[in-house]
């Protein structure tokens, strides 16, 4: 379980990125984090694992504090938190398997990581994860030979190689087409259910969040302005989160994406 208690981030300029954010995410629950650009979504995720230092408040994972820990203890805590990035953060020249095994770096010694001589158990675990994300046949390919969706699957497998107690996911579909985005979201939801993993997903696509998330938290100017079920995201709530102009533009873009995908499907059906 993840607990955030009055989490606040104030920059030296005096700008507040987060204001008194309090949340509890139980085991197995996947929370979608939505809001306009600059609302504090990425800052919130990065404050949880202290890639960004919060100014005030507490973060606890399974009752253990993350805030206030020294660097040695923080490294140990970070092993328990899997991070999945928007831009994949893979080592392009390494193979898919080597990238997945890099998720074990927090558990092995320096020479093992330097020589990449992982244990048989780690290798077996990595193969199992590649099979789970549908990339077994690509294990020996370089990461830069993969599509965007395949790279994101490698990122998911690498995060799971840590055997985490929490997943933090930062805009996992921002660089993907609509079909691949749904596949990636479905995979994340299934994996969290299988492993009883709590997760926070920073997601800019509201229709996708409505379709897949179990719970939605809406941020605006660093404050939580909505916390509830996806079916409660009506136009009034979305206008409160995004503002009338931003929400109308987002809705038009979503409708355009759906229309373009439907036209492509119809075209391909005609070709076939």
TrEMBL record:
Protein's UniProt keywords contain Ion transport: no
A Pfam family matched in the record: ABC_tran
Provide this UniProt record's keywords sorted from A to Z.
Answer: ATP-binding, Cell membrane, Membrane, Nucleotide-binding, Translocase, Transport
* UniProt keyword Nucleus, yes or no: no
The ABC transporter domain extends over 2-246
Locate the coiled-coil region(s) and give their ranges.
Answer: none
* GO CC term, one of those recorded: membrane
* One MF term in the entry's GO annotations: ATP hydrolysis activity
State the family it belongs to.
Belongs to the ABC transporter superfamily.
Could you tell me what this protein is called?
Phosphonate transport system ATP-binding protein
Q: Which organism is it from?
A: Martelella radicis
Biological classification of the source: Bacteria, Pseudomonadati, Pseudomonadota, Alphaproteobacteria, Hyphomicrobiales
């Amino acid at each position: 379980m993840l607990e955030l208690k009055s989490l606040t981030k104030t920059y030296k300029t005096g700008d507040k990125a987060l204001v008194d954010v309090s949340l509890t995410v139980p085991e197995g629950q996947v929370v979608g984090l939505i809001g306009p650009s600059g609302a504090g979504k990425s800052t919130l995720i990065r404050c949880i694992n202290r890639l960004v230092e919060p100014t005030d408040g507490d973060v606890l994972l399974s009752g253990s504090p993350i805030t206030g820990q020294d660097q040695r203890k923080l490294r140990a805590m970070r092993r328990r938190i899997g991070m999945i990035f928007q831009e994949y953060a893979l080592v392009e020249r390494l193979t898919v398997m080597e990238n997945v095994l890099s998720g074990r770096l927090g558990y092995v010694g320096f020479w093992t990581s330097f020589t990449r001589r992982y244990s048989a158990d780690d290798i077996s675990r990595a193969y199992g994860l590649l099979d789970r994300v549908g990339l077994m046949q690509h294990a020996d390919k370089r990461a830069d030979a993969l599509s965007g969706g395949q790279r994101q699957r490698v990122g998911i497998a690498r995060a799971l190689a840590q055997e985490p107690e929490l997943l933090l996911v930062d805009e996992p579909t921002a660089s993907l087409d609509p079909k691949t985005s749904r596949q990636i979201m479905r995979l994340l939801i299934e994996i969290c259910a299988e492993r009883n993993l709590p997760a926070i997903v920073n997601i800019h696509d509201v229709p996708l969040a409505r379709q897949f998330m179990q719970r939605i938290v809406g941020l605006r100017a660093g404050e939580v302005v909505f916390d509830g079920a996806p079916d409660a995201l009506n136009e009034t709530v979305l206008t409160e989160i995004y503002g009338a102009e931003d929400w109308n533009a987002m809705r038009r873009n979503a409708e355009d994406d759906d229309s373009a995908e439907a036209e492509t499907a119809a075209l391909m059906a005609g070709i076939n």
